[in-house]
Amino acid sequence: MLSPHLTEAVLTKLGFSERPAPDRAGLEDVYRAWCRRVPFDNLVKRIHLVSGSSAPFPNGEPVPFFESWLAHGTGGTCWPSSAGLHALLVTLGFDARRGSAAMFDNLSGPIHTHGTTIVRADGVDHWVDSSMLTEVPLPLVPHDATCHDDAVGPVWAEPVGELWRVWWTSAANGEEIGCLLLDDDVTSEHYLARYEASRDMSPFNTAVYANRNADNARITVAMGRRFERRPDAITSGPVGDDRDRVLVEEFGYSEAIVAALPADDTQG
Known about the structure:
Arylamine N-acetyltransferase fold; eight-stranded antiparallel β-sheet; 9 helices; globular; about 30% strand; alpha+beta
């Protein structure tokens, strides 16, 4: 649970003048606002890794996650951002659970590599993901496939036993990505442990990655390039020396946090 003061500050920055109701309509409003205002990124993680500190990642808990977002506009990778979204939803009265999944399970197998959020509204579970930023909660209906056929961020789910595999597409090239839900109700300690485990191996350890939604578009900085996905095409080009300007002007990060970022170790 977040404190009343922090909750008010978060809701204000998300664009709410009053507290949303903990129902399906309220869930849609909160998640849409999150997708437009809280980026998926590795800025805090990247800075911490390059510092050489062995201390836990500084944004793993919901309170420091939101304090960094309020001060610098940073989001997080899946574990801290899912923890933050879960904490906000629970504070607002939603029936939310922490999910743990295997991203690219067809390649990695059933390994816990992705955090997500499951919310029960109107008697139905919904996939509400802080990494995929699909704008609309995806219903998870037992024994039935469901989809959100969006031109920029399509997402669909298929039942796998008692759980689901969710399919979404890469902002960089439109590739289909599978994500197998392994457990739909894990602890905060599980999230923190998996976040720390990503210190040794993760695609978000060696270069800046940032992803945000805009009107009919998804903007991504990754592998030293800027990608823009729109309904009709995906365009890209190197960011080069413009990286910091793009992060400040297009993503809204503070100049202070961007100045603390190291150069990428690898570039595409």
